[in-house]
Design a protein that fits this description.
The protein has 23 helices and no strands. The chain has 507 residues and is an all-alpha fold.
């Protein structure tokens, strides 16, 4: 292993991240709810920053550059565009009503609206999708450490995993909140500094020379309109991230953590604006890589190699620190979200309360179980990230899964009074099964339709089943988020009931 200036900078950054994350554990105070959603107490600056950090991660930076390097501008740019669009849509339609419901996990919504079966199915889909997300960000971290330390990729991903486990277990969402405050702004600033270094001609090569080195189809609008140049795939990615990411455990975890519905909405707007602000620099660095790097370069190493070999030390080091910080942050958020769904929805409510007929676990027990579950979930994400390292593709695949089946029940459950349990189950099963079927059967030339068709069928199935079963399973007569008051007997959500009533006049 060779220690360079880049290696020292990254090592110090990781140590600071770990230290801040561990210290934030003091804020958890033996509370599972504080570990998972920071006690629903976070202000606008933290909520907006955390949402941006979940979007500006290793997938949407390192993965973005890799996809642009290999396939062209739009192949990578769709990632931050889709994620920014998602946060804007969340702000307009979803953030306020979901925050008012005072939930701990997103499957809590499916339970309150549709019951245990929908809660369980949606929870399984979200766990699968977020294991993929965690794997992608661990892969991004592994590539950075592989580059700066000259160590094997296996050791890079393992080191990243151990650091993330340590501070996630200690501080939970508080750890993300405080580490994100210096991680995300460093990353965004570094991306712009790197892009402007080349665009301004400071590299010694005129920008026109760099820009024109890429094939014309890499830069024109054919990536959005020409099927032969990946238009279907690119639009599928925008829809999967722009709509499917609304059903994202980590995004909604942060929406739930906001101290008020207004803060949740404004935080989503802030996160979306910061994400869109990264589209140009990160995607154009992929075009820069086309000029500077050999064509046979491993795409996932394009950004690390640009940073270490073709940028000033300060900018290159900042980019590497920003990417690894953002990757660890998203891996931490995803890991916490998965573990909370397993402990809260699967173990506490479905297994313990529904199957065994025992009371839900108390807040202290929820904390212990969530921390224990974090370890095997990280092991699974690490193994997947090591065996199939593909950060950019991972992100889109992760949200294809929930977009196909879980988006319709969430949206119609919020905004349509006739939404009911049979419709939700049909939508979850049909949409997800169809997406899996297309994974194996969709011709390569039609790739992208496998993302776009299942959610449409899922919505159609929801409407048909809901209308056909209204007699036996009528929807809400008065459809409003105030119908979803947490059950009094639920000891974990008992405190949330007070918060819910205080934030929702008239209850």
């Amino acid at each position: 292993m060779e220690i360079t200036g880049f290696g020292i900078a990254v090592a110090i950054f990781i140590a600071i991240t770990l230290g801040v994350g561990l210290l934030s554990g003091r804020l958890v105070k033996d509370s599972g709810k504080r570990l998972i959603v920071a006690g629903k107490s976070l202000p606008l600056a933290m909520v907006g920053t955390m949402l941006a950090a979940q979007a500006v991660d290793g997938n949407s930076s390192l993965g973005n550059v890799a996809l642009v390097f290999e396939f062209g501008f739009w192949a990578g740019a769709v990632i931050p565009l889709g994620l920014g669009l998602c946060l804007f849509i969340t702000a307009v339609f979803y953030a306020k009503p979901l925050n008012k419901m005072a939930m701990i996990t997103l499957p809590d919504f499916y339970f309150r609206r549709y019951g245990n079966a929908a809660e369980g199915i949606s929870g399984v889909l979200m766990i699968i999708s977020f294991l993929v997300l965690v794997a992608g960000n661990l892969a991004a971290s592994g590539f950075i450490l592989n580059t700066v330390f000259g160590i094997d990729y296996f050791w890079g991903i393992l080191i990243s995993s151990l650091v993330v486990v340590a501070y996630t277990t200690a501080g939970g969402l508080f750890a993300s909140a405080y580490t994100n405050l210096f991680q995300v702004y460093l990353a965004i600033g570094a991306f712009w500094a790197g892009f402007l270094f080349f665009a301004g001609g400071f590299s010694g090569t005129p920008w026109d020379t760099i820009y024109n080195s890429a094939p014309p189809e890499f830069l024109d609008l054919s990536g959005l309109f020409d099927i032969a140049n990946g238009a279907l795939i690119n639009w599928g990615a925008i829809l999967a991230l722009g709509l499917g990411d609304i059903v994202a455990l980590d995004f909604m975890e942060r929406v739930f953590s906001a101290q008020s519905p207004k803060t949740a909405r404004n935080g989503s707007l802030m996160g979306g604006a910061l994400t869109i602000f990264t589209v140009v620099p990160t995607s154009m660095l992929g075009i820069v890589a086309v000029y500077y790097l050999p064509g046979d370069t491993l795409p996932d190493l394009a950004l690390p190699l640009l940073a270490t070999d073709h940028m000033p030390f300060a900018i290159g080091a900042a980019i590497l620190m920003g990417v690894i910080g953002a990757s660890m942050s998203t891996a931490s958020g995803g890991l916490l979200a998965i573990s909370s769904v397993i402990s809260r929805n699967m173990i506490s409510r479905i297994i313990r309360k529904r199957w065994l007929g025992k009371p839900s676990t108390d807040d202290r027990t929820l904390l212990v179980i969530t921390r224990l579950v974090i370890i095997p979930m990280m092991a699974g994400g690490t193994i997947l990230g090591y065996l199939i390292p593909a950060p950019g593709i991972y992100l889109i695949l992760a949200f294809d899964i929930v977009f196909a089946g879980a988006f319709a029940p969430l949206t119609l459950g919020l905004f349509w009074k006739k939404a009911n349990m049979p419709a939700a189950i049909a939508s979850l099963l049909i949409g997800s099964s169809l997406r899996l079927f297309f994974f194996f059967t969709m011709p390569e030339e039609w790739a992208g339709l496998d993302t776009m068709i299942p959610p449409v069928i899922s919505f159609i199935a929801f409407f048909i089943v809901a209308l056909a079963t209204q007699g036996r399973y009528p929807g809400k007569l008065r459809h409003d988020v105030r119908d979803y008051v947490p059950p009094e007997e639920d000891v974990i959500l008992g405190e949330d009931l007070k918060h819910f009533k205080e934030s929702t006049p008239g209850v």
